[in-house]
Amino acid sequence: MRTFSYERARSPAEAAAAAMRNDGAKFIAGGTNLLDLMKLEIESPSHLIDVNHLGLDRIEPTSEGGLRIGALVRNTDLAADARVRREYGVLSRALVAGASGQLRNKATTAGNLLQRTRCPYFYDTNQPCNKRRPGSGCAAIDGFSRQHAVVGASDACIATHPSDMAVAMRALDATVETILPDGAVRSIPIADLHRLPGETPQIETTLQSGELITAVTLPKSIGGKQIYRKVRDRASYAFALVSVAAIVQPNGTGRVALGGVAHKPWRLEAAETELPRGAQVVTAKLLEGANPTRENAFKIQLAERTLGAVLAEARG
Amino acid sequence: MQDPKDLAGALGLTRRHLLIGGAASLAIPAVAETAAPMAARAQAAAIGVPVVSNVSFEVNGKPHDLALDTRTTLLDALREHLHLNGSKKGCDHGQCGACTVIVGGRRINSCLTLAVMHQGETITTIEGLGTPDNMHPMQVAFVKHDGYQCGYCTPGQICSAVAVLDEVKAGIPSHVSADLNAPPELTDAELRERMSGNICRCGAYSNIAEAITEVAGRKA
What average pLDDT does chain A have? Predict the structure, then answer.
C-alpha cells in the first residue's frame, strides 16, 4: 500500500473543502472497497479524509412523505430499518442480497453507490485496462467475460457496476444529495449519477472533484409488490450475473431495473409500458441494441427468464 | 558495501532471521502526527514517506494507545502490535472472514479497515470472548461438535457466530428471510446464509452449523 496522510473531518463542508486542498485526496467511509483497492495499489490516494463522523448516519422522513437516508447509514441498518422494510421492500431485499454480514456492517449507502467494478482485469494490474490505466486497452473484451456487460458497453470497456442496492434505488427513483467544495449543494437523480463507459471508462460518475454525497432521498413509496431477484453462481456472497428490481402494481403496470448487465443500473422507462404484456416484450425493449460477447450472451435470455419469474411472483 | 547475505552467513543467521531483522531495522524516516501540520504530512505521504498517526481504543476490556503507520489495518494492529494473533489473516481482502472481530457489538472484517479509524471504539477478539479455562458457550459448542479441522478459520467463525445470534435477536433480516416484516428465526437456511462470509477450506460447515444451532437453542 502507498503511503498516505489521514484526517478525520468534522463536517460535510470541511470534508469537501479538505478534498479540494489536497491533490490525490479520497474520502473514506466503510473502506471495504477502497482499502481492498489500495492494497493492490489500484487506488493510491496520498491523503484520506475519514467521513465517518459527520452525523450523516440517520434515516429521516421527508416533508414529501419519503425518506432521507444519510450517506453514512450502514447497509445493515438500511436493510433493517422498519420503514424501509415495510414501504421500500425492494431496497431491503437488494441490500441483503449483497456481500456478507461483516461487509454490510461496514459498507455505507454512499460508498455502495461509488464502489468500483469487480472486473477481474481491472483488479489484475498485469493486464491492460482502460478503467485502471486509460489508453492501455481492454483485456475483458476477448477474455473471460462471463460476468461482463451486455448493454451500454463500449470498445473501451465492458465492465459492470457491481451494486445491488443501486439497482433498487434506480427503480425507486432515488435522488443523490451532495455538497461541493465551495459549500454549494445539489441534487442528482440517480439515473444521472453513473455514466456509461464510452471512451472514458475511468470516469464513472458525474460527481465533480471533491464533491461529497451527503444523503440519498427516496420519494413517497408507490407501494405495489416489490421484488429483488438476483441470479449468481453461488447461493450467497457473490456478485450478480443478472438481477431484477421490480415494483409491480395490481393492474400489472410497474417499474423494472436490471443489475449485472451494464456499467450502471439499467432501466428504460419506455420499456416499462410493456410490462402488462410480459417479460419477453419488456426485455426485448430493455436490452435493445445489446452487444454481448460469446461468453455472456446467455445473460439476455437469463434476464428475460428472471423477469418472467419476478412477474409470476408478483401475480402471486 | 558487504552483501547482507554474506554477512548473515558469517554471523550464522538463517534467511528467516535476516527477514525478521530486516523488517524490524528498516530505517525509513516517518512523519509523526504531532511533528508536522496536515499539509506537510500530506506532502510527505505523496512522495512515499510513511505517516504515523495516534489512535486509542479498547481491546478485550484493555485500553491501548498506539502510534501507527496510517496504512496499518485493524487486523495488523491486533496481531503485530498488540500480539493478539487469534484473529487470522486469510485472504486480506475481505473475502474469507478469518479476520472477523466484533467492534462496538458488530462483526466486521478487520483486514478491510484502518486501525486509525477506530479511535475510542471497543473491540472484541476471540481472546476476549473466552479463555481455555473459561470458554465462551460458542467456543464450548465448537469443541463439542468438532466445528473445525485445521482451525485457521475458527476464531473468525466463532466471532461471526456470536454476532449472528445478536443480529437475529435484533431482528435484522437476511436474504433468505421469507417475510421482511416478521422477526427472523434461526433456521438452518438462515444460519448458513448469515455465516456465508466465513469460508472454511476444510469444509467443517455441517459441524459449525450444529454448534451454532446448539448455542442458539440454549439461549432461546
Answer: 97
